[in-house]
Amino acid sequence: MRSPIQPYLRNVLDGIAERRDGALADYIPELAGVDPEPFGVAIAMLDGQTYAAGDADLPFTIQSVAKAFTYALAIRERGLDQVLEHIGIEPSGDAFNRISVDERGRPANPMINAGAIATFALVPGETAAEKFSAVLGFLSACAGRTLTVDESICASEWGAAYRNLGIANILRAGDALAAEPAVAVEGYIRQSSVLVTTRDLAVMGATLASGGVQPVTRERVIDEEIAGHVLSVMTTCGMYDAAGDWVSAVGIPAKSGVGGGIVGASPGRIGLAAFSPRLDRHGNSVRAVAACERLSRDLGLHLMRIPEVGHLAVREAITNTSVENDIGNAAYFRLQGTIDFVAAETVVRRMSSESVSERYVVVDLSEVVEAKAVALLMLSEVLGAFCSEGKYLYVIDPSGIYSADDIDAHGLAGRVQHVASWQEGERVARERTERGLEP
Ligand SMILES: NC(=O)CC[C@H](N)C(=O)O
């Protein structure tokens, strides 16, 4: 059977393709000559499956989309504190090519040119080539294939790099650039000239969306903490002076480039990308912005419009049964899904609201996908209270959601037992009772 997703993406393109407003970036001579018509869109699931339509496999220069990834690399190599010493994380409200520095002389954020040049300077290596090779290696690791450079666009931008060299010189004069201006700008321009496809960008977005694991190679390229930080800065600064519009209309951490590409990373969900060369006055692709807006709306990806699923956390609860059930008069709580704070609140409210008359309490976690630390803490509190009432506690936990270590850490060692099934719980409970053991 054919997946409905590919035709859907085709439909997204068809609805936007007639838009021809916007203009090519012309301050880079070679970019002014690219074909303005291509239009591609792609999404990548966190297991590496991709869906694409239009010109999604056509290569174009990554330009400023690289900034988000080089920033991740610099943090991985230097640590967040050192990177924050050099580059702020406040939206500048200015165009991407302005010398936006804060009162400490740091570039306002890493997503504008000033901040990206300072970020590139922090990448390990002495020369532009050494630093660039680390960047190319990282971009390739995120894309899951070896990326290359468009040499003619690179040379063209380097030949007209007056503004970026000016920015770098001012940063260096203010002690805010950790390399010689020419080294930082040369490497930064090479990084901007890396060729990617829309599909590559979607996969790279998925790498950030998954918390740092490349979905195809399964390589962990950055820590979850770093991924979360980068996504935050993309949310507030990734679309330059259109960030406010972007967050309200699309609500997905993203980064655009003057090559016409936009990468988006919907945390824990998907990576997405769109590409078309004509740009709006902010330097963001007109059609790619429109495509991302449509995807966000149709696929329900807006960060501020998360469906509330916590109320489904308790799938089944059997308490205060007068009849003997399978496990000899046990209370049974079957949980499901991802248990975060909101879900755990429904669980503990349910467990503690009624006085549970049964002597055995079974908590079945076999359909729980993940439990956050706060959820285990809350569950442990309630189980601890059951314990003090003299109940026997059993956990069915085939995928190790509530490990022996967690149980220990919450002071319930020896009081909560893992069992494979209801039946095993009953057997263990009977044996203990027969041997006169306390719960
Ligand atoms: N916004 C962008 O994509 C700008 C990148 C481009 N290489 C520049 O520095 O001007």
Automatic annotation (TrEMBL):
It catalyses: L-glutamine + H2O = L-glutamate + NH4(+). GO terms for molecular function: glutaminase activity. The keyword Transmembrane helix does not apply. PROSITE patterns: STAS. InterPro entries: Beta-lactam/transpept-like, Glutaminase, STAS_dom, STAS_dom_sf. One of its GO terms (biological process) is L-glutamine catabolic process. Residues 333-396 form the STAS domain. Substrate binds at S64, N113, E157, N164, Y188, Y240, V258. Keywords: Acetylation, Hydrolase. Its EC number is 3.5.1.2. Homotetramer. Belongs to the glutaminase family. This is Glutaminase. It comes from Leucobacter tardus. The lineage of its organism: Bacteria, Bacillati, Actinomycetota, Actinomycetes, Micrococcales. The gene is glsA.
